[in-house]
Amino acid sequence: VQLQASGGGLVQAGGSLRLSCAASAFTFRNYVMGWFRQAPGKERELVAGITSRGSTNYADSVKGRFTISRDNAKNTVYLQMDSLEPEDTAVYYCAADRLVMSTKPIYWGQGTQVTVSS
Question: What is the pLDDT averaged over residues 77-84?
Fold first, then answer.
């Protein structure tokens, strides 16, 4: 199983980034997908999740700014991040789980660094 995240980088506050996570070796369409992040000195937190049918949920801190989506034909989940703030600086991880996104998903991807400068 592989979850390959990409799209991180350095951006100024107010800017946008789009993260992608390409999945392989499991039945992507049957899994809940999510994005977590971990900032230095902080615990990993769930940022956004999307069910196999497309229902979404977001952390309060990113509601209205971030959008999670998925393309089951491409086995890929995305995180569109707009109006970025320095507080969004973190390593972002994609994850896959069954039925609901838990704090310990079945599969983790490698992280991608997002840095927002003020």
Answer: 98
